[in-house]
Amino acid sequence: MTPRTPHAAPADLAEGRRSRPESPVHRVVPAEAATLAAARGARRRRERRIAIVLAAALLVVAALSLSVGSYSVAVPDLLRTLAGQGTGAENFIVLTLRLPRLVLGLLTGIAFALSGALFQTVLRNPLASPDIVGVTGGASAAAVLGMLVLGFGSLATAFAAFGGAILVATIIYLLAWRGRGGGTSGVAGYRFVLIGVGVAFMVQGLLGYLLSRAELRNAQDALTWLVGSVSGAAWPEIAVVAVGLAVLLPIVRMLAPRLRALQLGDDLATSLGVGAERNRLGLLAVAVALAALATAMVGPLAFVAFVSAPIARRLVGTGGLGLVPSALVGALIVSGADFAAQHLLPGGLQLPAGVVTGAIGAPYLLWLLATGAAGGSGSSRDSTEGTR
Amino acid sequence: MARNGPLTDVSGKNSVELVQGRKLGRTQHPSTQLTAPTARTTSLRTVALGLGYDGVPIVTDLDLEIAVGRITVIVGANASGKSTLLRGLARLLAPQSGVVLLDGIDITKIPGKRVATALGLLPQQPLAPEGITVGELVGRGRHPHQGWFRGTTAADDAIVADALVRTGTLDLAARRLEELSGGQRQRVWIAMALAQDTDILLLDEPTSFLDVAHQIEVLDLLLELNRTRGTTIVMVLHDLNLAARYADEMLVMRSGGIIAAGPPAKTLTVDVVRSAFGLDALVIPDPVCGSPLVVPIGRFHPAPTPASAILGKANLS
To answer: Would you say B267 and B73 are in contact if contact means Cβ atoms under 8 Å apart?
Structure first.
């Protein structure tokens, strides 16, 4: 047989495929195709339904956060205040004290959750989240170094935290890098997690050193920052997070199809035209930026990045990426944790939100380890979500 | 695009003919049954290709032309470089020297997504996200055909449905992958590779971890795809006898080079088996289809002299 165009240009290669659907080589199977489309529609509807339920829950938490407190605001008054018709006291309580706190919690919750979802998916390991592998730890160490040694104010501290997260992530990536085309699929993720956990311990050591040398009062401030809190939120900070998300979220949306290809392993991803190493690096960079942004503003809110995506994917249960539900779960966890820390704990204590998120996340980590879903055991059908 | 190959008719008709085609394939050597259609024309070859890991060369100075529209099976002992060669062809491994040419163009110079519309690979152990359904997984094979903002279209659905029908997995479309048996799973992965709709399909040991019935099922499926769609298939197989039965072209590898290549009947000889595997064996005609059948001898079961003399000579001549 003689090839039609043995030296076709690459452009022809692509065009040849475009015309394939009409070619007789494909049998036309409209009924089956319609069934598939219907099944996909059902999956999407399920994801949308979960998202709506989560959004509704978020609305309830938001209403509670804004109205409950030592000065309670009834829901009609709340709506009036949000519309700009509130009394002086209402304006101060709702718009100045409570709303920034709520909004900052929602935005950083979204950032943490998406960061965790990207980390866990790209590295195919449920333990790979920025708070476990030391990325937020790096932010903490840099922030505390700035606060205690260099005498940074809150803005400089935020920058230091952002830089610390990027620095630590770069170190982990370079240590985990195995050279071009060398490693086998799955190993890179496992290495990244192990090295990350090691780096996290080193960072903890540095933190302990800094705190033990500090004066008591300064150490107290640093510790509060280290727990993570949305209290003291102000609109300029919120604007920074909002702008950061406005840049990063569209990138996440654009990279989602590549993320889906990467879920199938490096070899298959490459075979589907998604260069594994390059895209992993890009996606991790976005994930690190999200985590760094959130940590810089509210501190390392423990476990939000770690638990959000697995919870969301468990709720959706379709094997999809579930990025929107993950973001909503993250927002719900942070705002819910902050509400609980302020109003629900016995003894009238007002604690930072990080105390509550840590209390939620630690049992989940134990459960994950106990049920053996933490992956990395070399199993060929390694779960990307660890929700078994 | 001219797609009037001799088999276009078969693919257009009902499945009975396909079953007959398969039966015929069983009774005679398949390559003598049907001439490969000319529908798919993308060529793949290597020039002075050198491959290796971390600077250690494994495949050196390899010139190879993959037969368009045929089934090529790579065999060889462990660590003979079969998988390395396949990874090199699939551009999973960058050449240390030489080039892989896809339609005459250096494959590393073509954008990945474009390569992915012409060349597909099914790795030995692909990963799947937990909870994914068969339909969704197979749909992901459409990735190279979808743009930044273009989602799944009706044409994608038709191609995915076609892939499911061809692999007999349509009924499984709504099931979760982890619920399926090993053989079903492998068919689903092949369906995904089909949905990618490439001229060339590379498979790394598609039958490992499968029992013998499922091995035959998968290989029959690949043969059928090759004969009906004209897809060029290159696969690594461990089982010499199945390789000989299903291959149009065999490549026998030893220490990173090809020591024999061509139709199985001419390639898989006593000498080649001894040279490639260090194994003394009889090679007799497969009673099912006449392809060479390798019967190992081993240390404790010397073959009866008459049989060895007759059959060994018959095949060597």
So the answer is: no
Q: Does B123 touch chain A (CB under 8 A)?
A: yes
ipTM of the complex model: 0.79
Say if the Cβ atoms of A273 and B117 lie within 8 Å. Answer: yes
Q: Is residue A14 part of a domain?
A: no
Angle, alpha carbons A307-A313-A317 (nearest 5°): 150
Q: Is the minimum CB–CB distance between A39 and chain B shorter than 8 Å?
A: yes
Element (H, E) at B233: strand B232-236
| Å between B94 CA and nearest CA of chain A | 7
CATH at residue A137: 1.10.3470.10
Using CB atoms within 10 Å of the CB of residue B109, give its burial: 0 to 12 exposed, 13 to 18 middle, 19+ buried.
exposed
Q: What are the structural domains of chain B?
A: 8-118+199-211+222-268 (3.40.50.300), 124-197 (no CATH)
The verdict on residue A263 lying in a domain is yes
Q: How many domains does chain A have?
A: 1
Asked if A3 and B43 come within 8 Å (Cβ–Cβ), the reply is yes
Examine residue A118 and state whether it is found in any structural domain, yes or no.
yes
Nearest CB to B196; choose among A179, A266, A272: A272
Residues 12-41 of B with CB under 8 A from A: 12, 36, 38-39, 41
Determine contact, residues A196/A133, Cβ cutoff 8 Å. yes
Domain, as residue range, for A108: 73-369
Quick check: is A200 in a domain? Answer: yes
- Per-residue pLDDT tens for A104-139? 999 999 999 999 999 999 988 888 899 889 999 999
Q: Is A229 on the interface with B (CB under 8 A)?
A: no
For chain A, the farthest-separated pair of C-alpha atoms sits apart, in whole angstroms, at 86
Residues 337-376 in A contacting B (C-alpha not used; CB under 8 Å): none
* Distance in angstroms (rounded) separating the CA atoms of residues A164 and A143: 8
Question: Taking a contact as any Cβ pair under 8 Å apart, which residues of chain B between 193 and 252 contact chain A?
Answer: 196-197, 229-230
* B304-317 tens-digit pLDDT: 655 555 555 545 44
